[in-house]
Amino acid sequence: MNNQNIQTEQMIKNKRATSLREKKGNRYLPAILGGMCFGIVLVLAAFYTSNATSTNESCMSCHVHPEAETSWKQSVHFDNKSGVQTDCAACHLPPEGTAHHYWAKVKTGLHDIWMYLTHDKEELDFESKRTVEYAPNIVYNSSCKKCHTNLFPKEVTDDGVAAHLYYEENEEKLDLQCVSCHLDAGHFLPGYKHEKMTSAPVDTTGPVYTEPASVTSFANFIETIPGTRASISMVAVPGGKFVMGSQKGDKFSRPDEYPAHEVTVSPFFMAEVEVTWNQYWAFYVETMSEGRTKPETIYANNSRPDVDAISGPTPPFGMPDQGWGMGNRPAITMTHYAAETFCQWLSLKTGRHYRLPTEAEWEYAARGGTDTPYFFEGKPSAYSSEGFWNSIFGTDTTTINRYVIYALNSKSRTQEPSRVAPNPFGLRNMLGNVMEYCQDWYAEDAYEKAGTNAVNPKGPATGTDYVVRGGCYNDDASELRCAARRHSDYEAWLKTDPQNPKSIWWLSDIKGIGFRVVCDAEN
Q1: Nearest CA to 227 among 354, 346, 356?
Q2: 266-279 burial, b for 16+ CB within 10 Å, e for fewer?
Q3: Is 512 helix (H, G, I), strand (E, B) or coil?
Q4: Which one, of 135, 130, 121, 127, lies nearest residue 64 by Cα?
Q5: Which percentage of the chain shows pLDDT scores above 70?
Q6: Residue of 515, 517, 440 lying closest to 244 (CA atoms)
Q7: Which of 56, 223, 312, 451 is least crowded, fewest Cβ atoms below 10 Å from its Cβ?
Q8: Longest dimension (CA), the chain
Q9: Three-state secondary structure readout of 336-358
Q10: Are strands 268-271 and 518-520 parallel, antiparallel or unpaired?
Q11: CB contact burial 166-191 (16+ within 10 A = b; e otherwise)
């Protein structure tokens, strides 16, 4: 066979192969075109569904809390001078057009549907979602930055400029979101203000006291603070011996609670409840110092032995009660120095020696003559939400609810002292509501160095952190044991404070801290 015949035969084979491929291609063409059309329809449907489920009406069809709509429409994101109204999805989803946006939308949508089908809207605690602890979980910083490219508009105050500069320079270290400071931007919070406080909400009801209380015996009395309308109910705490700390092996106990050791405490008076806002504002109004006063000047003035005019707190930024209410609720967010200065002022006003309790006095008072984990019946393992069974089936809160404001009944905020019953000594809120400062420096090995049969111990001579006791409104029951110890942590508690040096009066990043006063039995 010559070359020409071979080439002709090859051409015939190629044509047949091409013909076969064309036939096969024609056979699959409808399927390919159909798949392409289906894909386009699917993309368009997904795009439409995404847009349709990002409207405010769609969001509110699942988020059935009646407060959500009203609070949103009262916020600066809806009601402002520019007339620009921010929609729900603009804050509660990452920026549109990103993969993160659609993935977050799917997860959020599935969660919302599940909650809608399985939960009763009347039982949902909407207030707990409007807290600085929870809000960063449902608001995206990337979305805030997309809209707010300029952090320094004409209207911003000098304090605002300083705060935003501090944030820009320390954003990675701070690891915070915009909503951590601007909690009221998207949903209106009554009483919440993101500006320097200009005047104190002083109680104007009742008489102005002219004399301190007359105390002639060791018994409960009501201290009246001259020149103010404020008074403090003081409880006579009898002296005695008790075992301080925890035994090794006690449920939830920690190494700094060991070893348990016997301590003797002399009689003293202790405030029935933590210092209230009414009492603290009376102190603030009489002692307020200008923000320009240097800390060293204030320290020098207040440490003079003959001082007759206390330099008190500078105006706080925002409302330190977080919009939760003042009056008889415990005063919060003050530093240990501010608490000590309050005691100094109170001593000058009344002629009695008021101070913070020692750690030993605090635990003795909290126990109220008992030697159990709490001053009421029950074990931490039964009340704690930690652990497999309790996390699934819940806990019996009947008893603990009578005496303690904590994570399961606080609604993520402080409460009035009248909500709880007193301990055997007649003291309220020794456990829960707010943590309380003690005068002692904190040391992990303080109990190891205490020895046996200590009498009125006062802790280490020096330190960097102060003892904090009692737990707060946001704590699990395991943190509220009478023996549980904590300490101050000012680096974390003042993380967002842009001042240099940091404030000596107010804390920017913790809310569950307060104090109560004690008075020596012998004055």
Answers
A1: 346
A2: eebbbbbbbbbbbb
A3: coil
A4: 121
A5: 90
A6: 440
A7: 451
A8: 136
A9: HHHHHHHHHHHHHHHCCCEECCC
A10: antiparallel
A11: bbeeeeeeeebbbbbbbbbbbbbbee
pLDDT at 60 over 60: yes
Joined together, the tokens standing for residue 76 give: 């600066």
3-state secondary structure labels for all residues of 364-406: HHHHCCCCCCCCCCCCHHHHCCCCHHHHHHCCCCCCHHHHCEC
Cβ–Cβ < 8 Å for 356, 515: yes
Provide Rg for the chain, Cα atoms. Answer: 32
Q: Could you tell me if 432 and 400 are in contact, meaning their C-beta atoms sit under 8 angstroms apart?
A: no
Tell me which H or E stretch contains 242: strand 240-244
Q: CB–CB of 475/396 below 8 Å?
A: no
pLDDT in tens, 202-223: 888 889 999 999 999 999 999 9
Whether cis (ω within 30° of 0) applies to the bond prior to 259 is yes
In terms of Cα–Cα distance, which of 458, 459, 467 is closest to 437?
467
Average pLDDT, rounded, for the chain: 87
User: Cα–Cα distance between 290 and 281 in angstroms, integer?
Assistant: 16
* Token pair belonging to 212: 């301190």
* 14 pLDDT above the threshold of 80: no
Higher pLDDT, 70 or 5: 70
pLDDT for the residue 57: 80
3-state secondary structure of 436: strand
How sure is the predictor about 28, in pLDDT bands with cuts at 50, 70 and 90?
A: low
Mean pLDDT confidence for 294-301: 85
Taking residues 330-335, report their average pLDDT. 97
Q: 221-520: what CATH class? A: alpha beta
Among 247, 240, 467, 280, which Cα is nearest to 369's? Answer: 240
Domain regions of the chain by residue span: 69-180, 221-520
DSSP H or E run through 265: strand 261-265
Percentage, residues of the chain above pLDDT 90: 48
Stretch 386-404: mean pLDDT, rounded? 84
The whole-number pLDDT of residue 18 equals 61
CA dist 505 and 295 (Å) reads 10
Angle (CA) 412-418-423 rounded to 5° is 100
